[in-house]
Specification:
Helix content: 55-70%
Largest sheet: 5 strands, mixed
Distance between the termini: 104 Å
Strand order of the largest sheet: 2-3-1-4-5
CATH architecture of the largest domain: 2-Layer Sandwich
Radius of gyration: 29 Å
Number of domains: 2
Strand content: 5-15%
CATH topology of the largest domain: Alpha-Beta Plaits
Shape: globular
Number of strands: 5
Structural class: alpha+beta
CATH superfamily of the largest domain: Reverse transcriptase/Diguanylate cyclase domain
CATH class of the largest domain: Alpha Beta
Oligomer: single chain
Order of helices and strands: HHHHEHHEEHEHEH
Number of helices: 9
Amino acid sequence: MWTATQEARASWICRTASERARFLDLQARLLKPNTRVLVLLSVVMVLVADNPLTLTLPLVALVAVSTLATVHRDSDIENRGAATIDALTGMLNRTALIRRRTEIEAQSRATGEPVGLIVIDLDRFKTVNDTQGHGVGDIVLRDVAYVMRRELRAYDLAYRLGGEEFAVLLPGADLRSTAELAGRLHAAVAAEPIAGLAITISLGVAASTPGTPFSWDDVFDRADAALYRAKQGGRDQVVSDAVLAAA
C-alpha cells in the first residue's frame, strides 16, 4: 500500500503528464490557421476551470490578442500574395509591378545603378488560341513563363503584364547585360516545343544609364518601341534600344 507521500507524488505525475499532453495537443492545433479561434475558446474554458480568476483574466487576454493577431497576419499575407501573383503563370502581376517600380526608382536615385528592362511578347499567340483552343493557349503561357523563370536569377523580377505580354525588370543591369539575358530567354523558349508547338517570342530591351536615375516611364517606352521594331521586323528576335538609337 502506498504512503500518503507516494500517493501525492503519483497524483502530481499524472496531473503533469495530463497537462503536458494537453499542451502538445494545443500546440499541434495552433499550427493550423483555421482552428486557432476554436483553440482559443478551448484555452479559455481550461483556464477558467483550472486557475483562479486573478490569473485567468490576464492570461486569457494575452492568448486572445496573440491568437487574433496571428490570424490577421496570416490572412493579410495570404491576401497580399493572391493580389500580386498571376494565377496562371506564377509570375508577379501588374499590381506587383506598380508597387515595385516606385521602390526601384528610389533605389536607383540613391545608388546611381542602372536598371534594365525586357518587354516580351509571344509571337502569333492569337493563332494558337484560334486553332488550338484557349486551353492549349493557357498551357503555352504557363510553360513559356516557366522556361523564362529558369533563366532568371533569384533577384530578377518577372511579371505578366497581361495577355501574352511579359516584362523582366533587372536592378543593377546595364543595357549590355540586359540584352544578353534577353538573348538567353529567346533561345530557351525556342529550344524545345511547348505544348507540342513551335513557340517563339519577340523581345524589346532598354536600360537606364549608370549614374542617371531610373525612370520607369522612359525605359518602358524605349523597351516597348524596341519590341514594336522586333514585331515589325519579322518577330522571333531581340531588338535593343541601342539599335533604335543608331538608326
